[in-house]
Amino acid sequence: xxxxxxxxxxxxxxxxxxxxxxxxxxxxxxxxxxxxxxxxxxxxxxxxxxxxxxxxxxxxxxxxxxxxxxxxxxxxxxxxxxxxxxxxxxxxxxxxxxxxxxxxxxxxxxxxxxxxxxxxxxxxxxxxxxxxxxxxxxxxxxxxxxxxxxxxxxxxxxxxxxxxxxxxxxxxxxxxxxxxxxxxxxxxx
Length: 189
Prior knowledge:
The protein has 3 helices and 13 strands; from the N terminus they run E-E-E-E-H-E-E-E-E-E-E-E-E-E-H-H. By secondary structure, the chain is mostly beta strands.
């Protein structure tokens, strides 16, 4: 697998090796040993995954920006198995030099890319096609009492969502009630 570092420390893009022939293609979607080696080379802790999630979204659906607080912070290894999505991680680690910065990457069934988002990041995505199926492995279980979210369109974060003119953007009531980034910064003050 090919590991691509991003401008934000600890966020990684993973490109699995694809083996194609006249029958189709094959890839290892996850290999614990290779994942650990990639993280160890970067002096990062290799997590244990405890839960897999799978969602289906129609074009224009935004999910996020979600995260869980201590003691149940979640790291996520995410990928798209059908369709396309613009996936975004926001650094919410208060001691990080990139605190408040975001990074986005297109994940699709065609490019097979995966995105490693460790604990300490808010995460969200925009479905770029109908019937986009999103899979993610998490390092902790879902705990409603630890769930938090940031406003996906917060002007302070200024995330460049690739919203096209033919796209009707929709999001959940919960995401509509999300806090601004300023609220999160005040929590750390």
